[in-house]
Amino acid sequence: MILSVLNYIVLNSIIYGAFCAVIWFPFATRLAWIILATICFYISVSITNLLWNKINIPKAFEEPDDRAVFITGCDSGFGNKLARRLHAYGFYVYAGCLFPSGPGASELKQVCPQNLEIIKLDVTKDEDVEAARIQVERSLKNRQLWALVNNAGILVSTEIEMGDMKAFTRQMDINCMGTVRVTKAFVPFLRQSKGRVVNVGSLAGRYCIPGMVGYSMSKAAVISFSEGLRREMKKWSIDVISIEPHLFKTNLCNDEAQKKELVKAWEQTPEQIRKAYGECYLDGYQKFLDKILGSARPQIDRVVDTMMMAVTEKFVGHTYTVMGDVERIRVTLYDYLPVRLLDAVSHQLSVFYTGQPAFIKALYEKKKAL
Hints:
globular
């Protein structure tokens, strides 16, 4: 708290000083002030994060005895690792898997032969969710369901004009409506335990990424759902926690799979729109996609650590963001910089990789000819 207050004072002093400099001082002095403000801003945020991570705060933990946890999306990635960790911690684990006979589920069952059940679950199907609910109800016996972790999700990377509506409806149905569907089925189990719901959102739900608009929309909906659910569940003493990671190297960010979806969407795009963009733009967009997905962090255990904290600690926050120091500074700048400036920067970075669409290039050529 003290660090947060100090950081707030420092940041506001820097912003006020830069504002005064822009208004009253000559251009050279203004520029110097802006550079100094940026450096101070960077140092302030970095020091605060560094010191905060070094502070060892005593924590109280929940006992896993006679308690169970239900997790969706356990075929791979965060869900698979979390199931193993919670099983080792002592919880009885219900692992929802889209492919219950697939390699991820099979390996999970081998590693955790006892006190873990694989449950077939497609979060977009009411019948699968209802069957999972019945299976858990029969299996709980003397245990209580302590936590529901809504982790299942997909990412489809295309621009808005590319492809049909399926890219949007699929992501919304799995990432958002799947979370709602599973929550409605399992929240009644949590009343007795006064447990918690953990929803995996994304920073993309707060800061929309060009080329991932459908994903950002679905995760923004998850964040809103979490906020509303938390307030509605207060009457039952059920807590709701939102986990919002930056991009991490899971199957979600598989470069080959994303390019395959992009090409599929391109082929479904009307001819007139494809001509406006041009094949060169598609090639450039694939390079742009490489850059975005290449920035995904490999330390996925950081996200799993946060999910563990949300399930096992007695005293938890309502939202946890998971990202590196560089991303944290970038996100802070998003909150302070003018929107039009952010739009311009985003546009220039995109054009650097994709180039201008064929239609715009043709207009330039006509102007030159005149």
